[in-house]
Batch of 3 targets.
Target 1
Amino acid sequence: MTLGYDPKAGRFVGTFIASMMTHLWQYTGSLDTSSKVLTLDTMGPSMLSADQLVAYQDIIEFISDDHRILSSQARGTDGEWMHFMRAHYRRVG
C-alpha cells in the first residue's frame, strides 16, 4: 500500500496491488477529528461476484507510535458494512 496526502484535494490518497489479483485499488480518505483513525474508501471486486464492484473501507487506527490496527470492511447488498479482516502491526525492538 502506498499512501500520501494531496493538499489540493485536501484528502489522503493511495493505491494497493497484490500479485494474486489484477485489480489496482485506489484509495481516498481522511483522518477523524482526533487524528488517530484514517478511513480509506475504495471500490473493488465483490467477494461474491468478481464481475461486480462494491465499496470497501480500510481503516487504520494509530494506537501508539509502535502499534497500529488495520481493519477492512465491504458494503453488502443490504447496504451494511461487513467486517472481514483485522490486523495488528507492532514495532519490535
Target 2
Amino acid sequence: MHPDNPHYLLFRGKPTILLTSGEHYGSVLNRDFDYVRYLDALQASGFNLTRTFAGNYREVPGSFGIIDNTLAPKSESYVCPWPRTGGSKAGDGLAKFDLRSFDPAYLDRLKDFVAQAGKRGIVVELVLFCTVYDDKLWNVNPMKASNNEQGNGKVDRLEIYTLKDKELTAVQEALVRKIAAALKDCDNVYYEVCNEPYFGGVTREWTDHMVAVLVDAEKDFPYRHLIAQNIANGSAKIERPNANVSIFNFHYATPPDAVGVNYGLNRVIADDETGFRGKEDRPYRTGAWDFFVASGGIFSNLDYSYSCQHPDGTAVVTTSPGGGGPELRRQLKILKEFMESFDLVKMRPDNGVIRGGSASAPIVGNPPEARMSARVLAEPGRAYAIYLKGGTQAELSLNLPAGNYKAEWINTKTGKVEKPEVIDHTGGERKISSPPYSEDIALRIRWSP
C-alpha cells in the first residue's frame, strides 16, 4: 500500500491503480492456454493486472454458461499443483492425484507466468483457493477423498475450508507454503486467500488461519507480498478486519458503496470481478469509472473474448454471461490514462464540491442506467476528477477555491477532449456546462499557473 495514501498501491516506485479486463483465471492451470500471447494483449491494452487461480480448483465445460472457459481445461490439459500417479482413477477418468508431493511442471509454469507478467509490468493476483460451487466441480477436485491417493477430503464440499479435516488442512497449508517459496523473489504478486468464500461454507477461522500460514511462510523472504480477502458481492461493511490483509475484494461492486462504507479502514478496496451483466460495453465501462472516481484502487473485469483458441482476446462473444473484446479494452484504457493524469496520492473523494446541477435527461421515470449521478475525486484547489453517469448534457455548480483552472471534458468512449475551458475563478460557486454526451462523461479540472 502507498505509505502516503493507503487506498492506492505502490508498484516499482510509483503510485498505482490496477486495472484489467482479463481471462477467466485459467492462465496457469490450462496447458492449452498460451499465456504469453495473453499477456502481450494485456500490455497492448495498457493494463497492469491479471487474476489467476492457483490450480487446486477447476471448472468443467458448461460451468456458469461460459463458452470456451479457460478455467475448464480438458482433463489431459489440467495443470494441477499435485501430480497424478498411476493406479486407480479420479472422477475425470484419469489417474488420481498425490497430495504428498508437488508437480515440477506446475511450479515451472506458475513461475514462468509470473515472470512473463513481470516483464510486461503486469501484477498477478494469485487466488490460492476457491469455493467449490456444486457437486460436479467437487467430483473432479483433487481435494476430494476419491480423487487422491491419500484419501484426504472425506468431508462435504461445504466443509473443505473449515479446519474440520486436519489432514486436508495440512495439505492446504503445505500448498500455501510451496507457492510462497516458489514466488518469494517476485515483486509483482499479491495473494487472495479464497475466491467468493461467502458461497461455500468457508469459515472465518479457516481464512484467518491461512492468512497466518502465508505470513509465517514469508517472514524470512525478501518480499512480503500483500494479502487480499474477498468480502462480498456488492457491498458490505467490514467488521473486525484482519490486520494482515491489505486489500479487500468485492465482486460486482456497482454502485461502489463498498468503497465509501470502508474508506476509514485505510486499505485498498477492489472491484475484483465483474462480467455477468450482458455483452454491452456500457455496464463495465461505467462501473469502472464509478469505482475509481469513488477512490477504489483495483478493477478486474472478466473478459470472455479470451479463449484457448483466441488467447489474444479476439474471440467473438456469443452466449457467455458477459462481454469483452478489443473495443471494451480500448475504452477502459482511456479510464486508466485519465486516472493516471492526476497525482492520485493527494486525491480524496469529495462529492461536496458539487453544490448543484441539472441534466437534460429527466431523472424520474428513467431506467437506472439513464439516471444521472455525479462523483468527485479531489485534491482541493489543485485537481478534480469528476464523473457523470446518465443524462445527455449537464450543468454543474462547483465550489472551487480562487485560482486559475483548466477544465476539460473527456469522452469516455473515444478519449477525445471536448469543450476545453480556462477558468479564472475568484472563489465560491462556479457553473460549468458539459457538451452533449451519451451515457457518461468525465471532467478534468486542474490548477493552471
Target 3
Amino acid sequence: MRVLSVLEMLGTCTCTMNRSIKFALQRTSRVARGLLFSSSLVVSSLPAAEDWPEFRGPSGQGDAGMRRLPTTWSASNNVAWKQSVPGHGWSSPVLKDGRLYLTSAIKGDGKTNLSLQTLCFDASTGKPLWNAEVFSLEGDGGYKHEKNSHASPTPLVEDGRIYVHFGHHGTACLDVRGKIIWRNSSLSYPAVHGSGGSPIIVGNALIFSCEGWDNPFVVALNKLDGKVIWKTVRETSAKRKFSFSTPLLIQVAGQSQVISPGSGVASALDPKTGREIWRVRYGDGYSIVPRPVYGNGLVFIDTGWEVPSVLAIRPDGEGDVTDTHIAWTLKKGAPQTPSMLLVGDEIYMVSDAGIASCVDAKSGAVHWQERVGGNYSSSPIHAHGLIYFQNEEGKCVVVKAGKAFEIVATNDLGERTLASYAASADSLFIRTESHLYKITL
C-alpha cells in the first residue's frame, strides 16, 4: 500500500517521625497509588458485562464468553419485548449503558428521498428514546444489492459518543442524546452494491475501508472532529475492487496492527500512520465481507467470491508474506458473508449456503462439517460453550462447541434476518426486517 498523507496521532509529609519510618510510609503510599492507577486502567479498558458496543461485541470477534444466553425461543416464546423499527437497514444492534443503537434508511415525504438516521431504544423495555437524521439523500440513494441496505454498517459506541457510518454517503458522530457532533461526507467513492463494512476505533482514530469500483483505500478519521488523519491506497491486482470487510485490531510482539482484508489482498496496517506492515495476496477474490479473527498466533481471513477459501496467516512478517506466512488453507465450506468464530483451539464457520464447520485452528484439520439449513449472512456468536448460527430466514441453530457435532436447539422468529446479534448478560437482541427483539431466559 502507498500512504497518501500522514498526521501523527496523537504530599509532602509534615508529620514528625524518624527518617526510616517516613521513608517506609512514603514508599507504601507510592506502591498503593501505583496499584490503584494500574487497576483503574484495567477496569476502564474493559467493557461492562452488559455491553456489546460494536459489530461482533467487545472483542470484535463474536465471543460473549460465559454469558448465559437463551437457547430456545420463537416469535412468542421467551420474547421480553418486540419493537417495530422504521425504515430499512441491516446494521446490527449495539448495546451500551442500557441503550440499544441502530441505523436505518427511512423514506422521506416525497417517497423517493431517503433519511439516514440513528435510532436509540431502551434495552429494558424496547421503548424508542430518540431518532436523529444524520444525512439526507436525494432520490433513492443509488443502487444496492438486494441483500444490502443503505444502512448496513453497524454503529460503534465509546465514551458517550456514537459513531455511525453510511459508506460512501458519509460518517458521523453523535452524543447519547442524538445531537450531531460532527459529520464527514468528503470521502465519496464509486460504491458497488451499497455499503457494508463497519468502523473501528484505535486511540483517537476511527478506521474503515472505502472500496468501490476503483481506487480503493483505507482511511483514519480523528474521532474528535472527523478530520482525515491518514488515507492509504489499497494496491491490488484484483479485477473487481469492491469489498465490505470490517478491520480488526490485534497486538503482535507489542506492536498494534489493523488487519484489513480487501479484494485480492489482506494487509496489516500501522494504526498511527496507515503504513503497511505486511500483506498476503489471493488473486481475484473480491467482495470480501467477513471480519478477520485472531488467536493462537494466527489471523484468519476469507478470500471472497469466485473461489472462496479460509487462510490462516502468521502475522509476524514484513512486506509480502504470501509465500512464507500462510499456515494453512481451507476451501470446502468457506464463508463469503458470515464472519468466523474462534473458541479455544477451534474455528467455527458457516458458509452462505448453510454448511457449518468446526476446524482445528492450528492445523486446519476439519473436525466436522454439517448442513444446518437455510442461507446465511449474519455472523455466529459463542456464549457459555454454545455456538449460535442465525440464518436469513429467521431461524437460529444452536450447537455445542466441540469436536463432535450436536444440535441443542432450533429456533424460528419467522422474519427475514441478515443482521448479527447483540448480547447482554442474559439476553439476545435480534434485528429482523421490520422489528427488534429482546430474547431472554
